[in-house]
Amino acid sequence: MSVSFHLCQPGGGASCGACCGLYNFRDHSRAALTQRLATQTARLSHAPRTPEAYGEAARELTANRDAPALFPIVRVCPLLGFLDAEQRQVGCLGHPKVTGGTDLRDCGVYRASICETFTCPSFGWLTDAQARLVQAACADWYLYGLVITDVEFVRGCLKLLEWELGGPARPEALRERPESLLAVRRLFALKETAPGRDGQASVFGRFTHDTEDEPVPRTLDYAALGTPAAPEDDVVLCLGYTPADAPALLAARALVKDHVRAVAATFPA
Ligand code: SF4
Ligand code: SF4
Fold first, then answer.
1. Superkingdom, according to UniProt (predicted)?
2. How far is the CA of 10 from the centre of ligand 2 (A)?
């Protein structure tokens, strides 16, 4: 299993900058990230396209960044920005295709050769059909990056859907039917819209900090919660919920289940 097309800039409204540190902040809301990307884009748009000028701009942007990284071990690159005036596509402002030929990625937080060749685990773990479904359902830079990088979330949603349908949930079929695709978008968009996740500042999806500030996967303490495990729990964790008690966990499961059922309801019985 692996993806045969490039996940970073697949087109159709989807684009990703997750491995450039886009979401690596406590406040990784769309509004906060839009503001940061706009600041970086504006600053770099005034910089001459030379290593010296880009290096200076990158240092200045990093020094003036308004928030620390959530996971310090994951670098945040100041060369990430919007590739278009409408702020619909996120991407590397040091890439030669963007600068008009000069490769300025060495001015970012990695060497250009790493930026050029890096592929995140989703390239290996998602199928083409799963990735194309995410691309079609999340045709915007904010949601696409959140979902395409969370293999467990995508797989977990499709597994729940299979249980609901009592048979295979083919990503191709979900993509081809407009009403199904819209319902899938609402399910995946829970990454942005799910309520009641406030006050969980050190959590990013399935991950939290360990004592060394390294990201570590979270689990649910079923004994403390007083409830057994349920099939929705992987997705609940990927959404960033840290339920303090059984009612909170049950509410999060119900939210997921409702959205999965809404997708299933778009298929004839
Ligand atoms: S996180 Fe993956 S899909 Fe996103 S830009 Fe990086 S390599 Fe590409
Ligand atoms: S220089 Fe590398 S890390 Fe920085 S935005 Fe470009 S691709 Fe991402």
1. Bacteria
2. 17
